[in-house]
Write a structure and sequence with these properties.
single chain; 325 residues; alpha/beta; 5-stranded parallel beta sheet; two-stranded antiparallel sheet; 14 helices; 45% helix; transcription regulation; sequence-specific DNA binding; Sigma_54_int_dom_CS; DNA-binding
Length: 325
Amino acid sequence: MLGQSEAYGQMRALLHRYAGCDVQVLIEGETGTGKELAAREIHYLSERSERPFVPVNCGALPDNLIENELFGHERGAYTDARSAQPGLIEHASGGTLFLDEVDSLSSKAQVTLLRFLENNEYRPVGGGATRVSTARVLAASNACLEAQAAAGLFRRDLLYRLNALYVRLPPLREREGDIPMLARHFLRQVALRMDRPEKRWTEEAQRVLDAHSWPGNVRELENVVLRAYLGTEGATIGASILHDFIAPAADLAPATLAGVSMAGADLHFVSAKRNAMCAFERSFLLDLMARTAGNISAAARLSGTERRQLGKLLKKHGIEATALR
């Protein structure tokens, strides 16, 4: 886990404190923020570090096999059960069971998990004796489980069981100063992985990277770095090649989504979609800042965004708040 920003430092300090508390932790964050890395950090800093870390993709657990996957089965439990098989919970005994994408669990799966978390007891499919698990449960979601529970999509009693301790991973756009450092790190990693010469960013390229909002977070940045490395012949990567992968502020122009003429427009779906989104963002921001006479704090409250995030978006689109006052 790499980062030097204040937001990232505060988050990692929480992970270190939580490592010493042997209870459930709920980790929330956008896609690509490193939720599994955070869970592994908790595990390997804890007294359980010598025991297994077992990650589970909850979205891949079928309803009809949820109990078999988690609890295992005894010999003869069903037709093809020729031998007993332990479940994921038993594999994580003494260690950590990491439930990724826990928000994707069905209603039936939520009930199954809740029943286990109430007393850490379970019974293998086809087995008579109840067993007690010694695994610690960490759960992660890229959705807000509180909002999911309010909408009736997630059981509130299960939320309370998972949410003994809570940490939110900051998105890349809130990690001031981390983007250039991560971009340099990934560039070195690409060269090392491919056994090729190292390359470096120009200052202009670093400014373009820093101004992007990175909706895909660290994962998106890593992909862009890889493409930029492979797409550059020389030892220096400039800003021009980044325009093929991310939307630079300099190329944006005010537009509306409704009634836009397609004459001369880029008809490649991905780039056309990106341009339309950028046009909407810029148009929205210009109207927002005009309504608040260039007051960023008032604009952040009106739009329901964090002030720092709004500042990043304004910088990305080259909008000077002072010019609107």
